[in-house]
Structures are given as C-alpha cells and as structure tokens.
C-alpha cells in the first residue's frame, strides 16, 4: 500500500526524523490559510499523488511546463499555485501518460537551499533487497534526482549496507554510510541519528520501502548541522497492515487503480500488465507460470488475478467480472489447479459470471486437480462459448490463437 508524502512525513515525525512543518489543503483558500499559519517567507506547494517525479512532471491542462512541486515566496503565489494544480492532471515519469488528478496539496515551509552554500542534497532509501533477502540501506550523494537514472548511469554512486536480521542495525552501519557520502565530524553524528530513526520507522511500521529524496544537509560551520527530509515516501507490506490500523486508515483509494481496489476488497491479488490476455489463476506461482507460458506462445498478458487458494464460487465470479471489465482484455485464460479449491466450484463461478456478463471475448479454461473432471463437465453442460484446455501449454496455445483469430476478423 502507498500513502501520500504528507502522511509519510507524519509517520517520520513520530520517530523524530526531522521534516519541515506543513499542512494539507484541499482548496486554494485552505492552501493560502495554511501558508499564513506556517509563517516564514518561502513555501513549497506540493501535489499529493501516489507517484514520484512530481517536481519534474507537467500538467496535461497547461503549457507552462511548470511541475507539481512549486517553491513560492508570497501568499498570493501559494493561492495561485493551488488554483493551477488542484483538479488538474499531473503527468510524471511514474504515472504513465494518463497521469493522476491532483486532489490535495501539501503546503510546506520552504528550506531555502539557494541561499545556503553549505546545503547539500542526498538520497536515502531503505528496502528489502530481493537478491540478499536483507533489509538494505541505500544512500547517494546524488539527491533530489531520479535514483533509477543514477543507478543506471553511475551505479558506483549508490552506497549499500545490508543489515543482518539477527543483529539489526548498529550505529556503525549508519556511520559507514555517512562517511561514504563524504560527511564529517558532527555531520556524521547527525546523519547517524537520522538513519537510525528512519530504520526504526521502517521496521516498526512493517514498511517495504522508505525513500527520502532529497535529504537536505546544511552546516553553518559553527557546529549547527541540520538534516531535513524534504521528500518522503513509504510503501507498506499489505500482509502486515492488520497490525497498523492507523496506517490502513491513511489509504486514499481515490488515487489507486480502481480494479486493484476492487480485487483487494474481495481478498484477491490483481497485477496489471500491458498486453491483452486476462488471466485468472490460483496462487502466485501458477500466475507467474501462466504469464510466462502465454508469452512463450507469442501472447501478451493484460493482467493476472490471483483468486487465492480457497476461493468460493462468489469470489470466482467476482474475479471473472473484474477481468471482463478491463477494456484492454481481448481474451481470457482461466488456469486453476484445484487443491483445497475444487474445480467444480470454479466452473460454477465461471459459468455464473459468463451468463451474467454477456461475454464477447474468447475464453479458455484449464482445470486440473480436485474434481477437475466434474468441473469440465459443468462447463460443457453450460453450452457456453468456452474452450476447454488439456493442460497449461494447450491453454496458452488456444487463447493466443483465439485472440489472433478475433483480431484478424476486425476485433470485437
Ligand atoms: P518529487 O520527488 O515527486 O519530484 P519532491 O518532494 O522531491 O517531489 O520535490 C521536488 C523538489 O522540490 C525537491 O528535489 C527539492 O529540490 C524541492 N523541495 C521539495 N520540498 C521542499 C522544501 N520543503 N523546501 C525547499 N525545497 C523543496
Ligand atoms: Mg523527491
């Protein structure tokens, strides 16, 4: 699950990670009021969407080329920026061409780096590295820019420290990163505190990613070193959300993919791709295999919907409706390996959904395992345009061929 930047900063604040003061605003008047309340002379008006790259993004509605994060120096400009951004579609590197509509802003105190020659921007990330299966700290001197670009062009500029789960983080891990970034003296102490606190937030909140980019470091030279998270991002492990009802309450469904939301409400996992074959499967492993074999046969999956190991007939029907509802889908492959889940029940769910939905795309069903023969019988008896497959390869071959045939005849 993703949350907004202002929520991420609220969480970091609880762990004593320094962040600028700020207020959420839903209207231009609220934005101006928030800036007045915050005081100071510089404010940053920030679009809140579940995607990064906002500063370098642009709005579909205007040609000014101005992005979704704006540094302003008057209350009138706070108001004007809010008018400019609210209700508009922000397109960034991460949103795809459709963009996201900005529905809320975060008005924040500006940390004026331009007037402080000591200001440096760093990147700090904590995530679980799939290669080592360890929580890994990542840092770079290249802060405030797209870290993926840094990783691609100059991977040596990204420092990594993996944490042994038995010992957890130790101050020397953080110090090693801080010195690797070229910090010295009191800066290292301040960075160590910052990293340890951020790590605590990551582990105690069951996060899967924390990213602070940029992490602004200023040093006046007279011993006052300041670190500040100017941007913050969290993603959470959905399986641990039951332990964090306060984080669950931060969910902003209006900024998520509606199909994913519906799927998660039914307790199912939905993953979207760029192709046109919808897949309904049970189990993540079978999902991967199904996607691979479709590609091997020259097809492109549009999505997979994992109905889980113990789905009911109703859940199967709901899953099926979600797949049919995706306009990208030109054909559907149902691939179920019945264990605890019985194939006859899957067949009943599919038949119910096909009858209701007035199916206009080809459908191939492969059932194997518990009550598979009975399941196939139910599909045959329904006298619906459903193709049965003998095995996974046969299923992939049939759906790819059927989709090609409909396209040859001018599509649906
Ligand atoms: P994104 O990563 O989505 O582009 P950021 O929050 O990183 O959004 O903002 C983009 C840039 O705006 C930052 O790299 C930083 O230079 C500047 N910025 C963001 N917040 C502040 C702030 N509170 N004070 C000063 N500059 C800021
Ligand atoms: Mg950023």
UniProtKB/TrEMBL annotation:
| Domain of life of the source | Bacteria
Q: Which residues of this UniProt protein bind Mg(2+)?
A: 213, 231
Among the Pfam families in the record, one is ATP-grasp_2
Chain residues that bind ATP: 46, 53-55, 108, 111
For this chain, one GO molecular function annotation is: succinate-CoA ligase (ADP-forming) activity
Query: Which residues belong to any copy of the ATP-grasp domain?
Result: 9-241
Family per UniProt?
Answer: Belongs to the succinate/malate CoA ligase beta subunit family.
- Protein purpose: Succinyl-CoA synthetase functions in the citric acid cycle (TCA), coupling the hydrolysis of succinyl-CoA to the synthesis of either ATP or GTP and thus represents the only step of substrate-level phosphorylation in the TCA. The beta subunit provides nucleotide specificity of the enzyme and binds the substrate succinate, while the binding sites for coenzyme A and phosphate are found in the alpha subunit.
Q: What is this protein called?
A: Succinate--CoA ligase [ADP-forming] subunit beta
Give the gene symbol.
sucC_2
């Amino acid at each position: 699950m993703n949350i907004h930047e202002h929520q991420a900063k609220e969480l970091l604040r609880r762990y004593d990670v320094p962040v600028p003061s700020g207020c959420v605003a839903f209207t231009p008047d609220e934005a101006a009021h928030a800036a007045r309340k915050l005081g100071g002379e510089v404010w940053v008006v920030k679009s809140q969407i579940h995607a990064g790259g906002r500063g370098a993004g642009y709005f579909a509605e205007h040609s000014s080329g101005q992005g979704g994060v704006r540094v302003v120096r008057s209350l009138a400009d706070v108001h004007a920026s809010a008018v400019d951004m609210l209700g508009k579609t922000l397109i960034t590197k991460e949103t795809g061409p459709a963009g996201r509509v900005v529905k809320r802003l975060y008005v924040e105190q500006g940390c004026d780096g331009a007037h402080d020659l000591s200001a440096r921007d760093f990147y700090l990330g904590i995530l679980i590295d799939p290669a080592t299966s360890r929580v890994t700290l990542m840092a770079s001197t290249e802060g405030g820019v797209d870290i993926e670009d840094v990783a691609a062009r100059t991977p040596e500029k990204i420092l990594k420290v993996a944490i042994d789960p038995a010992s957890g983080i130790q101050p020397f891990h953080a110090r090693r990163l801080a010195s690797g970034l070229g910090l010295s003296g009191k800066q290292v102490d301040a960075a160590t505190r910052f990293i340890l606190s951020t790590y605590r937030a990551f582990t105690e909140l069951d996060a899967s990613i924390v990213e602070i980019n940029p992490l602004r470091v200023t040093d006046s030279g007279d011993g006052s070193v300041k670190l500040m998270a100017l941007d913050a991002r969290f993603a959470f492990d959905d399986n641990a959300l039951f332990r964090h009802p306060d984080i669950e309450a931060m969910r902003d469904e209006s900024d998520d993919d509606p199909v994913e939301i519906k799927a998660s409400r039914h307790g199912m996992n939905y993953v979207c791709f760029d192709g046109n074959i919808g897949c309904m499967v049970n189990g993540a492993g079978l999902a991967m295999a199904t996607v691979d074999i479709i590609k091997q046969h020259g097809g492109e999956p549009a999505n997979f919907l994992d109905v889980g190991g113990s789905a009911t007939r109703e859940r199967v029907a709901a899953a099926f409706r979600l797949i049919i509802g995706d306009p990208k889908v030109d054909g559907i492959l149902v691939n179920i390996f019945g264990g605890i889940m019985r194939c006859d029940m899957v067949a009943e769910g599919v038949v119910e959904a096909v009858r209701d939905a007035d199916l206009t795309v080809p459908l191939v069903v492969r059932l194997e395992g518990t009550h598979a023969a009975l399941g196939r019988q139910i599909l045959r008896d329904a006298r619906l345009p459903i193709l049965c497959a003998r095995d996974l390869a046969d299923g992939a071959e049939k759906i790819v061929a059927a989709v090609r045939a409909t396209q040859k005849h001018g599509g649906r």
